[in-house]
TrEMBL record:
This is FAD-dependent monooxygenase. The keyword Oxidoreductase applies. Residues 6-350 form the FAD-binding domain. The keyword Flavoprotein applies. Its cofactor is FAD. Keywords: FAD, Flavoprotein, Monooxygenase, Oxidoreductase. GO terms for molecular function: monooxygenase activity. Pfam families: FAD_binding_3, Rng_hyd_C. PANTHER family: BINDING MONOOXYGENASE, PUTATIVE (JCVI)-RELATED, TRK SYSTEM POTASSIUM UPTAKE PROTEIN.
Amino acid sequence: MERRQVPVLVAGGGPVGLATAVELAHHGIECLVVEPRETVSWLRPRAKTTSARSMEILRRWGLAETLRSRAPLAVAWSDEAVFATSLLGREITRIDRCFGLDLVGSDLAAEPGQQVPQPLVEEVLREAVGDALLTGWQVTGLEEDADGVTVRIAATDGAEREVRAQYVVGCDGSRSVTRDAIGSRYEGRQDARPNFNIVFRAPDLADRVPHGPAVHYWVLNPAQPGIVGRLDLKDTWWCIAQGVRAEDADPVRLVRNLAGADIDVEILATDPWTARMLLADRYASRRVFLAGDAAHQNPPYGGHGFNTGVGDAVNIGWKLAAVLRGWAPEALLATYESERRPIAADTIEAAAANMATLAPELADPALMGTDEEFAKVRPAVAEAIRRTKDSEFHSLDLVLGYTYTGSPIVASGTGERLPHRWLAPGESLYDRLGRAFSLVGDLGSPQAASLVAQARELGVPLEEVDLPGEPLTLVRPDQHVAWRGGDPEGALRLALGHLR
């Protein structure tokens, strides 16, 4: 049996597996991504929101502009969600500044969010990963020992191989082989309500929509509640029919009900699903780590799913690189679970709260009545929408504000993402940071000399960003703060996971 050796094997080449590979390549680490799908399917767009934080990470990899230039919906197209009786019906209210799409040029973030179908994100990441992606194969099992991991992979034609890796990152989704291999189990629950996704083509439908551009159109029709949105500025749309079981679904009729008219429609794909709130009870063994859906699943409301996985990828990616390049001890890897699992737990809780009030809960039969009945009930429904859905569309505290405070590898009172700022038009502070650690602030201070000496002693790459008169900040490769001010003695050793 043929055997290949790589430093890191990534099981699964969805967006999180690909992000892990890009992060490793960012640090010069070779990996192999094993993915059964030969091509990306455009018929199941899945995630459609790439958060401002994920876009900052794409900028860090040099891919943000590539993704934006190819996204069917430009950021400037809309940042609004419209709530109506149907796609072609009466408007109830709208919410603006959704999903961080309004952050263009803001000091809050180096990048605004981006509405873009997941298949396009995967295509851009596949191109960046290049020859490290092995398609048509999947991981079927693995065995870990003191020196590495032996991974069994199989092709669709029955061929088998073994790959020897020092480490494995399991990004192989809800039916994860890697999760089973390390004895990890999901904890949580599944929502009782069914959902039915449809991708469809509807020529000239856009010209008939009276509400103008929006990233979401929420349909509050009690007879058929759901969400509709555009996949491009041509004729392709997506929708979620809420409360519909696959066995009862008539896709054409569902689309027409949501539209509110007997429109011409061509069904391109359907996808029944139920929301899950699941968290793996452990994220890692010594050499195998779980990321993305293999580690956690949450409802899609708020757009946090794959974005949380991108955060996983960056966290484990830089830590594996630090260990493999010899400037951090293996103990650093044990902090992956302690840092990322609480973030996933918070995200699941937030998404579940968003899911508590969906279109069926907001729909009122009076909305479908006469103009007088609609006008009478509209203010109360609009107020309920603003009260219950604000956090779903305005979640920057979660997207940009999560911290690793309390982690054993950050100094007391730190762990937050480095506050963003623009240094010049188009030049972000983040653009000045190094690929490994960065020292930001007044480099003329004695503290700076101490930290530079520590980096030299430990062999840690350290980018120096001089901002005269400003407090010194030690920034990790993932742009989170490891130390700020105070006594710098041992700050870098702490940030690298050296035992105290």
